User: Fold this.
Amino acid sequence: MGDGPAGRADAGDPSGSRGADDPSGLTGAVPSSGAPGAPGAPGAPGVLGVLGVPGVPGVPGVPGVPGVLGVPGVPGSGGAGAEGGLPRGAVVGPFSGGRAAWGEHLERAAGLHGAVDWELYDDRGEAETARQIAEAVVAEGRHTLVIGHFNSAGARAALPVYRAGGLPVLLPLATTPGLLTDSAGTVLRWCPDDRAQARDLRTAVRSAGHTRIAVTHDGTAYGEGLARLVRDEWRDERRKGHDGRVPVPAGPVVSDGSGPATGAVPGLGPLATGVTAAAPAGGPDAEPAVVPAPALVPAPGSEAAELTALVVCGTHGGAARVGREWREAGFGGALYFTDDCAVEEFAELLGDAGRDARVARMRGGPEAHVMAAFAAATRALTEDPERTGRTLLAAVRTHADRAFTALGEPVEGSVGWDLARVPAPPRGRASGGGHRGRAYDVIVVGAGVVGSATAAVLARQGARVALVAPMDGRRDHATAWSGGLVRAFEADPYLRGLALRSHQLAWGPAALVPGPYGFVPTGSLVLCGDTDLEQAEKGVAELNGAGVPAALLEPGALRERFPGLAVGGVTAAVWEPQGGYADPPRTARVYRDRALARGAILLPARVRELVAPPGADRVRVLLEPGGPVEASAVVLAAGSGTGAIAGHRLSGSDAGRTKSIRYGFFHHPDTAGLPTVVDMVTGVWGRPQVTGEAAGGYMAGRPVDEWDVPAGGEDTLTDEHVAYIRQGAAVRWPWLADPSARFLGGRQGVDLYTPHSLPHLGRERPGSRIVLATGWSGAGFKTAPAAAELAAAEALDAVRNT
Assistant:
């Protein structure tokens, strides 16, 4: 969070220990910083070289990744969604994990309807995660419409949140009956529901001539609920004595939908003993029992041995397992599967058990319903981007390819279910046991400014990237509490190279007017003592050589030019007229938006552990809440939260030490004309506050000797905190000792300080799939654009070598 004198653990200004910018708007080769012989950080494993500085090895070129540190031709990134003025919609679905095959429909549709800025949120099919996403989307207030959730349990949890927030929702795939009962006309469902599926399943099975039928499920709540619907549909049929078309034979064998995962039915007994469970009596009112045995075959002469069809309800992974178990147990009849199995990977999961198997599928295919929803929403939003709420939903209705009831259900007869044959599994992949769900190319852990910018670079390069960000409203990352100081000079040659590259990417002349980062040009002074003078002289020469105006000012010139600044103990100062400060939370938001606009997916969770065995081609990321997800590479940009994440080289105390950072805003007439200041002599820092909260004041910070503190921050200071800042910072700004200097407010946050005072930036160890981008020791915000570029290059190299 701080950006004080780098390399000193007792200093830091609140400019962000995590900072990054999506490299944008530049063309041509990346120049050298011109610092001869600048060595890499000794004793700092994982610190990459930068900018072609002699003695500091640069990042090797990554084929197919133009513009990454030394590769000619850094392309401009173009306008982001937020900057381009496109209407914005949220898309929520399972983009990773066991049900990611369904999320692919949503992901493809979003990519094909680019006239709207669709932001993807990965709920992994988890109801609680879905609710958290809904709350965050509504709280942000940036979206005009939501498409999703795929999972009906998630939709049930999220719809009341959207309704309360006035946000319209389109449900292209959620099929549970009754979801729209309390929607108050704020939802449109594009697909048929499961009650219709049960009815159409019954009709199809009967039409195929089956008279002995069992219904089972995969042991999930979803599968059990669907099995009950199918059971009820058959019960109603039996009580009526007909279904309108096919005579009903006496005594169909139907489970009650509450059995174990194997779905044992009456008349199946263990093969080893040959015990036969009593078959139920036939008749329209029979309630068959369920035999809870895990490995069963039909006993000769039993009613179950005469089964001709089995309906399996559940998720496609669980249903495939049940189908395989029944085949292995000797069942030779027809298999019917419910709609979650209507995905391409199901045939692979089912394997050879798929002979004579059919699956219920939305008429026209599920992707057709998804595409239709996106098409109607896109037309309505582009026709009038100012539409919101019910007005927007009414416009979606007019552009839809189907009619809806007043409640928002599709009009009866406009949608329905078909039974499709399960294709043969791909050759050589018929075991059904190796599926792991869809993996990401890269998962970026940390949604501060470094993480967000890294995700933006990766997404721009075409990687399938997820940005892990808790959606609980907490602001644990240092970016939220940063003061955002920006300059190109750093005393350390390595950090200076990063700062110079970052100036070229984000903080140069193009940023000297109010823009996407909230940049304010105030000019920047770095006050140096005797021991700092050599690097100050080298730095000024390097900056001017790279086209960044800089000068070395003597104390007399400082007193004359900045009368509100005391210069005791100062030998010289590096002056950068193009320096200033930006708005760190806004900057992080810009990069997050850019990442999402280019197809990155927001993964709402906290990371508990990284599992990356040597030689493995995936990193397993254990989330909380939720289960694991996988990626070919992980960028760890978790700042002060790095040590709490297990399974990498820096887990625990090796990450460094956390340290408190505090600063306050003060108002006094003598602050007029003062620039941004970083004092390498005393460790204090400050800058004007030109706009926003505390506008017209001056920010002053003083190092705090509080270590090993938990991540987080606050926007309040105690009287003791304020007095401490006044006392120490008055050495540079004497007006702080004046009682008339009014305190306007303050902030406190936490930075991660490394033992070598340089960031962990690069692979955690040679060949690892974990890339570190953390631990700037209070000097990170201004160097973040280059840091993101480096981290992305390393991650893409790991992906390429998968």
Q: What stands out?
A: The chain is about 25% helix and 20% strand.
